[in-house]
Amino acid sequence: MEILKAEKLVKTFAISEKQRKSLGIKEKKKIAVDGISFTAKSGEVFGLIGPNGAGKTTTMRMLATLIKPDSGDALYNEVSAVKSPTEIRSKLAFLTTDLKPDMKSTPSIMFDFFAELYHVPKDEAQKRKKTLFEEFGIDKFADTMISKLSQGQRQKVSLVNSVIHDPKFVIFDEPTNGLDIIAAREVREFILNMKKAEKCVIISTHLFDLVEKVCDRAAMIMDGKIVVEDTLENLMQGRPLEDAFYDIYTEHMRNKGEM
Ligand SMILES: Nc1ncnc2c1ncn2[C@@H]1O[C@H](COP(=O)(O)OP(=O)(O)O)[C@@H](O)[C@H]1O
Ligand SMILES: [Mg+2]
Questions:
Q1: Ligand 1: lining residues by beta carbon, under 6 Å
Q2: How far is the CA of 143 from the centre of ligand 1 (A)?
Q3: Statement to judge: residues 77 and 103 lie in one domain
Q4: Strands 44-49 and 3-14, how do they pair?
Q5: Rounded to the nearest whole angstrom, what is the distance from the C-alpha of residue 206 to the centroid of ligand 2?
């Protein structure tokens, strides 16, 4: 059983004078993440859902050891991401839709490149390539230039490349953002496959339907804080997640005195 525990993660960014002027604000600091804690387990998909600017990407980047929290930690089976980032990186996959594949390469060449990057031994890499390419249907276009592939095919290649080293933890920030409906569907299927393979999967998104379709548990995040965390069933209580979210959002804004 794999367990990821986010413990009181905090991240504050300094706001430059230029940013302050363009945004018309006086604050010199922005608390992007303000004490986020949650637990995710293998065999389930945990979702962080919230509006733009809520702190999802900052949280995911701290989980993935790409930035250090000001305080707090992420414990992967009790191993600290703050103290042992290199060890943690070898156990996780991080994917965002912001990364663009090299158009002049092919899925097969890209796979070899990432396998080397992740220090996967050559014969093991070739075995994994065969299995993963067959599983996701990439074998049919393994030697086609990336530029000639559809968006869905490209996203599949990125997904497969992110799990070359057989990580136990899978962290996807806005995994379907900007994808067409076919590509988004393939990403959802991939997420569910990872869950079936007993990975601990954490996704962040602002899309309710993605959470409804793949998540077992979810936390709603606003202004850098988790306002509610529960099983999907308990969060929805028989109505669409969007309606449940809106009720919580209205209450949150009312408490802040903004509605
Ligand atoms: N590098 C940064 N410098 C300054 N502010 C930042 C930086 N990164 C994020 N922020 C701010 O922190 C808040 C949370 O951002 P982010 O984590 O990207 O939210 P989300 O992914 O939920 O849209 C936003 O107000 C954003 O403008
Ligand atoms: Mg984001």
A1: 13, 30, 32, 50, 52-58
A2: 38
A3: no
A4: unpaired
A5: 8
**Would you call 152 helix, strand, or coil by DSSP?**
helix
Amino acid at position 70, single letter: D
Residue 211, SS3? helix
Q: Evaluate if residue 100 carries a pLDDT over 70.
A: no
CB 171 within 8 A of CB 6: no
Question: Please, are residues 225 and 35 in contact by the beta-carbon 8 Å criterion?
Answer: yes
Domain interval for residue 253: 1-91+168-180+197-259
For residue 32, the ligand closest to its alpha carbon is 1
Q: Which residue has the tokens 């030697």?
A: 143
Domain count along the chain: 2
- Residue 170 pLDDT > 90, yes or no? yes
| Paired strand residues for 189 | none
Whether residue 159 is found in the same domain as residue 105: yes
CA 53 to ligand 1 center in whole angstroms: 6
Whole-structure pTM value: 0.90
Indicate if 138 and 173 belong to the same structural domain: no
Residue 252 CA from chain centroid, whole number: 25
pLDDT at 152 > cutoff 90: no
Same domain, 83 and 30: yes
Index of the ligand 1 atom closest to the CA of residue 60: 17
Instruction: Give me ligand 1 centre to Cα 255, in Å.
Output: 22
pLDDT for 98 beyond 70: no
Q: How far apart are CA 137 and CA 40, in angstroms?
A: 29
Q: In this structure, is residue 185 part of a structural domain? A: no
